[in-house]
Amino acid sequence: MTWMPCTRRCAGSPCLPGTRWESPVRTLEKAINEAGVAVDEMVFAPVAASLATLTADERRLGSILIDIGFGCTTYAAFSGEKMLISGCFPIGANKINDDLVHRFQTTAVGAEKAKREAGTVLLSDVGEEETLSVPTIEGRGSHVISRRELCRTVRIRMQETFELIAGEVWRQMPQDAPCTGVVLSGGGSQLDGIVALAEEVFVKRARLGELEGLVDATHLLQSPELPSRSPAVAMGLLAYAQAAADSDTHVAVRDRGRSEGMWSRLKRQLLTKKGGVA
Q1: Which pLDDT value is given to residue 202?
Q2: Number of domains present in the structure of the chain
Q3: Which of 41, 93, 109, 219 is most exposed, with the fewest beta carbons within 10 Å of its own?
Protein backbone atom coordinates (compact mmCIF):
# COMPACT_ATOMS: atom_id res chain seq x y z
CA MET A 1 0.00 0.00 0.00
CA THR A 2 1.25 3.48 -0.64
CA TRP A 3 2.48 6.31 1.53
CA MET A 4 4.29 8.86 -0.63
CA PRO A 5 7.13 11.01 0.72
CA CYS A 6 6.25 14.68 0.46
CA THR A 7 9.45 16.65 0.51
CA ARG A 8 8.10 19.87 1.68
CA ARG A 9 9.37 17.90 3.51
CA CYS A 10 6.65 15.31 3.37
CA ALA A 11 6.45 12.10 1.42
CA GLY A 12 3.89 9.96 -0.34
CA SER A 13 3.65 6.20 -0.27
CA PRO A 14 1.20 3.46 -1.27
CA CYS A 15 1.41 1.86 2.19
CA LEU A 16 -0.53 2.15 5.41
CA PRO A 17 1.37 2.35 8.71
CA GLY A 18 1.57 -0.69 10.94
CA THR A 19 1.39 -3.16 8.06
CA ARG A 20 3.81 -5.60 6.45
CA TRP A 21 4.55 -2.79 3.96
CA GLU A 22 6.20 -0.77 6.73
CA SER A 23 9.74 -1.87 5.87
CA PRO A 24 9.64 -0.68 2.21
CA VAL A 25 8.29 2.67 3.41
CA ARG A 26 11.17 3.07 5.85
CA THR A 27 13.60 2.10 3.08
CA LEU A 28 12.10 4.79 0.85
CA GLU A 29 12.41 7.36 3.63
CA LYS A 30 16.00 6.35 4.31
CA ALA A 31 16.92 6.69 0.62
CA ILE A 32 15.42 10.19 0.50
CA ASN A 33 17.22 11.18 3.69
CA GLU A 34 20.51 9.87 2.32
CA ALA A 35 20.05 12.20 -0.66
CA GLY A 36 20.15 15.10 1.76
CA VAL A 37 16.40 15.76 1.95
CA ALA A 38 14.55 15.16 5.21
CA VAL A 39 11.07 13.59 5.24
CA ASP A 40 8.68 15.26 7.65
CA GLU A 41 5.47 13.42 6.78
CA MET A 42 4.03 10.53 4.80
CA VAL A 43 0.87 11.03 2.74
CA PHE A 44 -1.20 8.04 1.68
CA ALA A 45 -1.12 7.90 -2.14
CA PRO A 46 -4.89 8.09 -2.85
CA VAL A 47 -5.17 10.98 -0.39
CA ALA A 48 -2.52 12.84 -2.38
CA ALA A 49 -4.22 11.94 -5.66
CA SER A 50 -7.56 13.17 -4.33
CA LEU A 51 -6.09 16.64 -3.74
CA ALA A 52 -5.27 16.85 -7.44
CA THR A 53 -8.37 15.23 -8.91
CA LEU A 54 -11.46 15.53 -6.68
CA THR A 55 -13.69 18.58 -6.72
CA ALA A 56 -14.88 20.22 -3.51
CA ASP A 57 -18.39 18.83 -4.10
CA GLU A 58 -17.03 15.30 -4.53
CA ARG A 59 -15.18 15.49 -1.22
CA ARG A 60 -18.24 16.89 0.52
CA LEU A 61 -20.99 14.79 -1.10
CA GLY A 62 -19.02 11.54 -1.22
CA SER A 63 -16.78 9.83 -3.75
CA ILE A 64 -14.33 6.96 -4.14
CA LEU A 65 -10.88 7.75 -5.51
CA ILE A 66 -9.07 4.80 -7.12
CA ASP A 67 -5.44 5.26 -8.16
CA ILE A 68 -4.29 2.47 -10.48
CA GLY A 69 -0.51 2.37 -10.31
CA PHE A 70 2.10 0.10 -11.83
CA GLY A 71 2.51 -2.28 -8.91
CA CYS A 72 -0.60 -1.70 -6.81
CA THR A 73 -4.02 -0.09 -6.78
CA THR A 74 -4.94 2.17 -3.88
CA TYR A 75 -8.31 3.62 -2.97
CA ALA A 76 -9.92 6.03 -0.53
CA ALA A 77 -13.56 6.94 0.09
CA PHE A 78 -14.44 10.51 1.08
CA SER A 79 -17.60 12.07 2.45
CA GLY A 80 -18.29 15.22 4.41
CA GLU A 81 -14.74 16.47 3.72
CA LYS A 82 -13.33 13.41 5.51
CA MET A 83 -11.59 10.24 4.39
CA LEU A 84 -13.77 7.42 5.71
CA ILE A 85 -11.90 4.33 4.52
CA SER A 86 -8.83 3.50 2.47
CA GLY A 87 -6.81 0.54 1.37
CA CYS A 88 -4.54 -1.04 -1.18
CA PHE A 89 -4.34 -4.21 -3.26
CA PRO A 90 -1.01 -5.40 -4.70
CA ILE A 91 -2.58 -5.57 -8.16
CA GLY A 92 -1.54 -2.86 -10.60
CA ALA A 93 -1.24 -2.29 -14.31
CA ASN A 94 1.83 -4.51 -14.41
CA LYS A 95 -0.29 -7.48 -13.28
CA ILE A 96 -2.21 -7.21 -16.54
CA ASN A 97 1.09 -7.43 -18.40
CA ASP A 98 1.99 -10.56 -16.42
CA ASP A 99 -1.36 -12.10 -17.36
CA LEU A 100 -0.73 -11.39 -21.04
CA VAL A 101 2.81 -12.77 -20.89
CA HIS A 102 1.60 -16.08 -19.45
CA ARG A 103 -1.58 -16.30 -21.53
CA PHE A 104 0.03 -15.55 -24.89
CA GLN A 105 3.66 -16.52 -24.24
CA THR A 106 4.98 -13.11 -25.21
CA THR A 107 7.54 -10.71 -23.79
CA ALA A 108 6.82 -8.09 -21.11
CA VAL A 109 7.52 -5.34 -23.64
CA GLY A 110 5.24 -7.01 -26.16
CA ALA A 111 2.47 -7.36 -23.58
CA GLU A 112 2.67 -3.67 -22.63
CA LYS A 113 2.62 -2.60 -26.28
CA ALA A 114 -0.34 -4.85 -27.09
CA LYS A 115 -2.26 -3.60 -24.04
CA ARG A 116 -1.66 0.04 -24.94
CA GLU A 117 -2.40 -0.25 -28.65
CA ALA A 118 -5.12 -2.90 -28.79
CA GLY A 119 -6.43 -3.35 -25.26
CA THR A 120 -9.95 -2.43 -24.16
CA VAL A 121 -12.36 -3.74 -21.56
CA LEU A 122 -15.30 -3.15 -23.91
CA LEU A 123 -15.54 -6.60 -25.50
CA SER A 124 -18.57 -5.59 -27.57
CA ASP A 125 -16.29 -3.25 -29.52
CA VAL A 126 -13.96 -6.08 -30.57
CA GLY A 127 -14.74 -8.39 -33.48
CA GLU A 128 -14.33 -12.15 -33.21
CA GLU A 129 -11.97 -12.22 -36.18
CA GLU A 130 -9.65 -9.41 -35.10
CA THR A 131 -6.04 -10.43 -34.55
CA LEU A 132 -2.69 -8.86 -33.77
CA SER A 133 0.94 -9.92 -33.81
CA VAL A 134 3.01 -10.11 -30.61
CA PRO A 135 6.64 -11.18 -30.02
CA THR A 136 7.27 -14.75 -28.95
CA ILE A 137 8.47 -15.31 -25.39
CA GLU A 138 12.15 -15.58 -26.41
CA GLY A 139 11.83 -12.38 -28.47
CA ARG A 140 13.20 -13.88 -31.69
CA GLY A 141 9.99 -14.04 -33.66
CA SER A 142 6.30 -13.25 -33.46
CA HIS A 143 2.95 -14.99 -33.57
CA VAL A 144 -0.66 -13.99 -34.14
CA ILE A 145 -3.18 -13.92 -31.30
CA SER A 146 -6.86 -13.08 -31.00
CA ARG A 147 -7.45 -9.46 -30.04
CA ARG A 148 -10.72 -10.45 -28.38
CA GLU A 149 -8.94 -12.95 -26.14
CA LEU A 150 -6.35 -10.34 -25.25
CA CYS A 151 -9.08 -7.86 -24.29
CA ARG A 152 -10.95 -10.55 -22.36
CA THR A 153 -7.79 -11.21 -20.30
CA VAL A 154 -7.39 -7.48 -19.61
CA ARG A 155 -11.05 -7.11 -18.63
CA ILE A 156 -11.00 -10.09 -16.24
CA ARG A 157 -8.09 -8.63 -14.29
CA MET A 158 -9.51 -5.10 -14.10
CA GLN A 159 -12.97 -6.35 -13.18
CA GLU A 160 -11.50 -8.46 -10.40
CA THR A 161 -9.59 -5.45 -9.07
CA PHE A 162 -12.69 -3.25 -9.04
CA GLU A 163 -14.76 -5.99 -7.41
CA LEU A 164 -12.18 -6.40 -4.63
CA ILE A 165 -12.25 -2.66 -3.96
CA ALA A 166 -16.04 -2.47 -4.13
CA GLY A 167 -16.34 -5.33 -1.66
CA GLU A 168 -14.11 -3.57 0.85
CA VAL A 169 -15.70 -0.16 0.35
CA TRP A 170 -19.30 -1.33 0.75
CA ARG A 171 -18.32 -3.52 3.72
CA GLN A 172 -16.67 -0.69 5.64
CA MET A 173 -18.61 2.35 4.43
CA PRO A 174 -21.18 3.70 6.93
CA GLN A 175 -24.67 3.04 5.59
CA ASP A 176 -25.67 6.68 5.93
CA ALA A 177 -22.58 7.99 4.11
CA PRO A 178 -23.45 9.31 0.64
CA CYS A 179 -21.40 8.41 -2.42
CA THR A 180 -21.90 10.25 -5.69
CA GLY A 181 -19.43 8.30 -7.80
CA VAL A 182 -15.98 6.95 -8.58
CA VAL A 183 -12.93 8.87 -9.81
CA LEU A 184 -10.06 7.03 -11.53
CA SER A 185 -6.45 8.19 -11.61
CA GLY A 186 -2.98 6.76 -12.16
CA GLY A 187 -1.35 5.32 -15.25
CA GLY A 188 -3.68 2.32 -15.30
CA SER A 189 -6.67 4.61 -15.82
CA GLN A 190 -5.51 5.17 -19.41
CA LEU A 191 -7.02 1.79 -20.35
CA ASP A 192 -9.80 2.11 -22.91
CA GLY A 193 -13.31 1.59 -21.53
CA ILE A 194 -12.25 1.64 -17.90
CA VAL A 195 -14.88 4.22 -16.90
CA ALA A 196 -17.70 2.03 -18.23
CA LEU A 197 -16.31 -0.98 -16.34
CA ALA A 198 -16.10 1.00 -13.09
CA GLU A 199 -19.72 2.12 -13.50
CA GLU A 200 -20.77 -1.47 -14.13
CA VAL A 201 -19.03 -2.81 -11.00
CA PHE A 202 -19.79 0.02 -8.56
CA VAL A 203 -23.21 0.88 -10.03
CA LYS A 204 -22.22 4.52 -9.65
CA ARG A 205 -21.25 7.33 -11.95
CA ALA A 206 -17.53 7.21 -12.80
CA ARG A 207 -15.15 9.63 -14.43
CA LEU A 208 -11.46 9.99 -15.22
CA GLY A 209 -9.57 12.02 -12.62
CA GLU A 210 -8.14 14.84 -14.68
CA LEU A 211 -5.96 17.22 -12.69
CA GLU A 212 -8.04 19.94 -11.03
CA GLY A 213 -6.99 23.52 -10.32
CA LEU A 214 -3.26 23.08 -10.99
CA VAL A 215 -1.18 25.59 -12.96
CA ASP A 216 1.24 23.89 -15.36
CA ALA A 217 3.78 26.70 -15.61
CA THR A 218 6.45 24.44 -17.16
CA HIS A 219 4.03 22.76 -19.62
CA LEU A 220 5.41 19.42 -18.42
CA LEU A 221 1.92 17.96 -18.03
CA GLN A 222 1.22 18.63 -21.70
CA SER A 223 3.93 16.19 -22.75
CA PRO A 224 2.52 13.14 -24.61
CA GLU A 225 5.04 11.03 -22.71
CA LEU A 226 3.28 11.90 -19.44
CA PRO A 227 -0.44 11.02 -19.65
CA SER A 228 -2.51 13.53 -17.74
CA ARG A 229 -3.76 11.21 -14.98
CA SER A 230 -0.47 9.41 -14.34
CA PRO A 231 1.11 12.08 -12.09
CA ALA A 232 -2.00 12.57 -9.91
CA VAL A 233 -0.19 11.46 -6.73
CA ALA A 234 2.86 13.63 -7.45
CA MET A 235 0.70 16.67 -8.20
CA GLY A 236 -1.35 16.01 -5.09
CA LEU A 237 1.81 15.98 -2.97
CA LEU A 238 2.69 19.42 -4.32
CA ALA A 239 -0.83 20.64 -3.58
CA TYR A 240 -0.64 19.21 -0.05
CA ALA A 241 2.74 20.77 0.63
CA GLN A 242 1.50 24.16 -0.59
CA ALA A 243 -1.65 23.95 1.52
CA ALA A 244 0.36 22.87 4.56
CA ALA A 245 2.74 25.78 4.07
CA ASP A 246 -0.21 28.19 4.00
CA SER A 247 -2.10 26.65 6.90
CA ASP A 248 -1.62 24.81 10.16
CA THR A 249 -4.19 22.22 9.07
CA HIS A 250 -2.90 18.73 8.25
CA VAL A 251 -5.16 16.05 6.86
CA ALA A 252 -4.75 12.30 6.48
CA VAL A 253 -0.99 12.20 6.90
CA ARG A 254 1.44 10.29 9.02
CA ASP A 255 3.97 12.30 10.98
CA ARG A 256 7.45 10.89 10.59
CA GLY A 257 9.52 13.42 12.46
CA ARG A 258 12.47 15.13 10.86
CA SER A 259 15.39 12.84 10.08
CA GLU A 260 18.85 14.31 9.68
CA GLY A 261 19.85 14.45 6.02
CA MET A 262 23.24 13.58 4.56
CA TRP A 263 24.38 17.19 4.16
CA SER A 264 23.32 18.02 7.71
CA ARG A 265 25.35 15.09 9.02
CA LEU A 266 28.41 16.12 6.97
CA LYS A 267 28.15 19.68 8.25
CA ARG A 268 27.88 18.46 11.84
CA GLN A 269 30.90 16.18 11.45
CA LEU A 270 33.01 18.94 9.89
CA LEU A 271 32.08 21.37 12.63
CA THR A 272 32.93 18.77 15.25
CA LYS A 273 36.37 18.13 13.75
CA LYS A 274 37.09 21.86 13.69
CA GLY A 275 35.99 22.26 17.26
CA GLY A 276 32.66 23.81 16.35
CA VAL A 277 29.29 23.14 17.89
CA ALA A 278 27.08 20.46 16.28
Answers
A1: 97
A2: 1
A3: 219
Per-residue pLDDT of 59-68, as tens digits, reads: 999 999 999 9
Rounded CA gap, 169 and 49, in Å? 18
Q: Is residue 171 part of a domain?
A: yes
d(CA 75, CA 84): 11
Are the C-beta atoms of residues 158 and 197 closer than 8 Å to each other? yes
Structural domain for 170, as ranges: 3-93+154-273
pTM of the predicted model, to two decimals? Answer: 0.77
To 10 degrees, what angle do helices 45-53 and 232-246 make? 80
Q: How many residues does the chain have?
A: 278
Rounded CA gap, 47 and 12, in Å? Answer: 9
Cβ neighbour number for residue 110 with a 10 Å cutoff: 21
- Chain-centre distance for alpha carbon 231: 8
Give 78-134 pLDDT, tens digit per residue: 999 899 999 999 999 999 999 999 999 999 999 999 999 999 999 999 999 999 999
Instruction: State the Cα–Cα distance between residues 65 and 77, nearest whole angstrom.
Output: 6
Residue 54 lies in a domain: yes
